[in-house]
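WP5 quarterly update. Target: Ribosomal RNA large subunit methyltransferase E. Source organism: Agaribacter marinus. Length: 206 aa.
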Amino acid sequence: MARSKTSKKWLDEHVNDPYVKKAQIDGYRSRASYKLLEINEKDKLFRPGSIVMDLGAAPGGWSQIVAPIVGDSVEVIASDILPMDSIIGVNFIQGDFREESVYNEILQALGDNKADVVVSDMAPNLSGVNTTDQYASMYLVELALDMARNVLKPDGSFCAKVFQGVGYDEYVKDVRTSFNKLIVRKPDASRPRSREVYLVAKGFKG
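Structure tokens (predicted):
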């Protein structure tokens, strides 16, 4: 079946992407690993001993970064609708956390603890219709924020991928109500033409 011009352009861009090539060399599952590496270098989100929840974790590029940093004493709790190959130090829960059973499984993995950090690189399956895709992406980051508000310990941190567009400004204002500090990051590994940015919120008010 012939590829559309758009998908061919994406494939060419992907194959020639320096971060895709670098990820293959470095053994990372995703070019997105470099986004979190840069963010954590600048914002010191997690450190040895931090309890971290990774939402939208598959294929595991972010969990790969987090697990070695937080160390053996804690488990990264990762979740996604899609399957993910296992990573040492990561407790992966497959399923849709909007479902009560999956949500409860995530809470059980936390036990009596609260999370130091919630990270989310979630994105919807894109339809190609900008308005539809924007609403779908905003819905996901709202879910991620709800999760963060429920599981973070006071002074905890939240980092989420957000697409600029309809609903973005309102979402930023909403995040500010729960955190003392908010920074917008556009990592080098984020494609320049992409509308994605990463909100880094610190100092959860609890």
